[in-house]
Amino acid sequence: MTATLLDGKATANTIKRELAARVAALRARGIVPGLGTLLVGNDPGSEIYVAAKHRDCAEIGVESIRIDLPATASQEQVNDAIRELNSDPRVSGFIVQLPLPAGLDVVQALSLIDPAKDADGLHPMNLGTLVLDSTGELGTPQPCTPAGIVELLTRYDIKLEGAAVCIIGAGPTVGRPLALLLTRRGVDASVALLHSKSLNVPSRARKADIIVAAAGSAHLVKADWVKPGAVVVDVGITREIDPVTGKSRQIGDVDPAVADVAGWLAPNPGGIGPMTRAMLLTNVVRCAERHQTTSQ
Fold first, then answer.
1. What pLDDT is stored for residue 243 in this prediction?
2. Long-range contacts of 47-52 (CB under 8 A, 24+ apart)
3. C-alpha dist (Å) from residue 55 to 15, 147, 278, 289
4. Catalytic site positions
5. Which range marks the domain in which residue 151 is found?
6. H or E stretch including 164?
7. Number of domains observed in the structure of the chain
8. How many whole angstroms separate alpha carbon 238 and alpha carbon 218?
């Protein structure tokens, strides 16, 4: 068996075309959506990712507002930059690029974001709403990677209702919010959220219809962890230096041999990364549309 690829890049391009039409409609009414980013330090992965987000903005007509601070920035300098983005009328929504350098308080930084401008969906208020709003009726921003996973599976008509989903990795940006999204009414999956202290992970993964690997451990998920025909979504990222090229390369959590067992595979790279960026743009456009509604 060779797994069918869940093509995140092609799907994200479709979403961007859909968003471009919505942006054009907003611009026709005099509203210009804007994405702000705050990057602290020079983490290579973060630099690449932020640059890609701004390229995406240019493709669909969203303005870019960027603040870069050195790795030596103090907490107060970071806080001041967040306040600046909160008050900037050009900014519909913005992100604080994670991870922050050691010594900076992530929770404090995220808590300072105006919840209405929270393009990453990680403000404590928005995460709390995600817990309480089981149907998604309030339309608050959703964490981008979890939303991208659900969107990709949905667009490929992967059955989620009643499906046994095994999420490996219980982090605050992927695993935990993904479990909430998958168990919302109307999605109705059954979720096992596993982590580094979980017992019998391989045998529990083998029972799953869908495996989401989000542990950040290179090639953690082996072929014998996967039920034949299961859906596997590779999310976790490990970066290492390619000994041949000397350049940094990205490695996922899923062993390449899994492709011979799984029925569907979202690869890494090329799967969830583009979808995460597409969901970020979606959140920004929604922020602009909500602003239009509230200002009328």
1. 82
2. 49/97, 49/277, 50/97, 52/277
3. 15, 21, 12, 21
4. 53, 97, 120
5. 144-274
6. strand 164-168
7. 2
8. 6
Average pLDDT of the residues in 14-40: 97
In a domain, 287, yes or no: no
The residue out of 116, 135, 160 marking a domain boundary is 116
Query: Do 250 and 154 belong together in one domain?
Result: yes
155 shares a domain with 258: yes
Q: Are strands 231-234 and 210-213 parallel, antiparallel or unpaired?
A: parallel
For residues 61 and 109, state if they share a domain: yes
CATH number at residue 79: 3.40.50.10860
Judgement on whether residues 198 and 88 belong to the same structural domain of the protein: no
Spatial strand order of the sheet with 4-5 comes to 4-5, 264-266, 231-234, 210-213, 164-168, 190-194
Name the residue type at position 111.
Answer: S
Identity of the amino acid at 263:
G
CA-based torsion, 200, 203, 209, 214: positive or negative: positive
Which CATH number fits the domain that encloses residue 204?
A: 3.40.50.720
Task: Give the pLDDT band of residue 35 (cuts 50, 70, 90).
Answer: very high
Burial 58-88, CB ≥16 within 10 A → b, else e = eebbbbbbebebeeebeeeebbebbeebeee
The average pLDDT across 49-60 equals 95
Give the chain's radius of gyration (CA, Å). 19
Residues facing residue 191 across a β-bridge: 165
| Mean pLDDT confidence for 168-197 | 96
The model's pTM: 0.94
Which of 108-112, 190-194, 236-240, 290-294 has the least mean pLDDT? 290-294
